[in-house]
Structure formats: structure tokens, C-alpha cells
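Readers of this paper often ask what the protein records in our data store actually look like. The remainder of this section carries one protein's record, kept here as part of the documentation.

:::
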Amino acid sequence: MENLFSLQTIFAYIKEYYPNLYFWDGCSKHEIRNPSKSYKHRQGMPNEIRIEFDSEDKGKNWESINQTAINLWEAGYSFAIFYVEGGRSPHLHIYDIDELDNFPIEKRNLYRTKFLKKFCPKGSDPDLGLCDEKHLCALEFATHFKYHKSKKLLSYFWQGANQGMDSEIFCEMVMGKTPKEKIGKLLHKKRNIKFGDSLKDTQRDLIINNLNFEIIFDKYGVKYKGKMALCPFHADKDMSLSFSNEKGLWKCFGCQAKGDIITMIKMLRELNDG
């Protein structure tokens, strides 16, 4: 994999999936890549997480990157580590969190912040500015504008598949605090997307595919048995509400309320708030 990984790999990937990504040549304004020009910086990709550390102690930064890499490897993530000679910290890039494409930029940035807090060692100083994908950072394999050295690939740790979004963080963002023993049920399907692929699901499709009604009912105290539940939207005594995790749909045969799993969450939240 490392032999196939180059600046052209990055350019080809961005051209196919994120053609409007901004680059910077060190002089001009930020712009969409012009193949005839050389660049030093680029924006982060929507499905990317970038990690570096800001401590003045370079040794501590290396220790933090090493421990972060161990944590990520044990969690099943694929990632690359780059370094510019003379720089304060190596750069770690995770390129294939493809599900992030389905969220607006504000939620993508929030996810990255939570991700760094979870996987970077306690007491370390990760650069949270890189959680914002609009923030430019040194372009892989290019000559750094400050150190005048190439940003070299130290190693590409490839696990053969995309680990996907962290289930605990995903659940917290979609549903709020969720008991750990129930998290596995929420993300009952793991994505297996290789680097270079991109999911085209909508955010709604992503949530429908990854949640199930039982977890939602448990959260809001709705009684259920099998594929039937007491409808929370009228004075139900007969378990009139039918639901299907496979289809992501539900319907009450008592009050005729119906919808998909997102409609259920919205209505339960409104009922709870009211």
C-alpha cells in the first residue's frame, strides 16, 4: 500500500470525490487546484481526520502521536503518519471516515473534536483547529513553506477496511447519552469501505440504517413486545403500534400515526419536551 501512496494518489482522490477542495500555493488566495501549479497546503477532506500536537516539547509530541497511533490501531483504524524535518509534530491522517460525508460541516467538526478527545492520550495537546476541515495544513509529499523540507510519509498503517465512525460518539451525537451496553445495537452494521471509496447515502438513510426501534423505545420508556409497542401518542392499552427495523418504518393502528425511525425520534422528543 505504501508503494502506491503518493501525491498523485491524493490529487486523483480529491479530483474524483472532492473537486471543490481549496489549495494554497504559498502566495495566491486559496483556490481549487490548478494542475499546472504547485501547492503547499490544502483543506481537509470531509471524510478526513487530521491530528498533530502543539506542545513546545517535540519529544512529547512524538510520544503523543505514538500513543494515538496505538489507540487507533487497536480500534481498527487505517491511517498515515507524515513528518517534516524540523517540524514540531508528526501529522496523522485518517482518510476514510466516509460516513462523515452524510453530516453537515458543523457536525463533522464536532465529531472530530470528540474523536481527538477520545483517542489522543490524556494530558496531550492536540491541535483542535485541524478539526475544522476549512483549516489548511501542509500538503502531503510537498515542500513545507516554513521548513523547506518535504512532508514525508513515515508509514501507512493499513487494516484492509474502513473502521467507520466511532459507535459511541455517533450515538451520543444522534441520540444524546446512551448506555454503553446498548451502543453495539445502534451501529449493528459496520461499513467495510476501502480507501478511495465514498458512501452516497443521505444523512437520513445513514441514521435509518444504523438505529433500531428497541433502543429508541428503551430511551423514552415505551413498552414493546416483539414487533408491537404501546403507542405513546394516544392512550393505548393494546400495543397498537407496529414497527419494522428492516424497513425503518412504524404505524399505529389506533391513532393512525406513522412514519420512519427519524419521525419517531422527532415526535418522542416533542412529546418529552412538552
The helical segments are 7-17, 58-75, 105-119, 167-175, 180-186, 203-210, 213-220, 261-273. Confidence is low (pLDDT under 50) at residues 185-203. The chain has two domains: 2-157, 212-274.
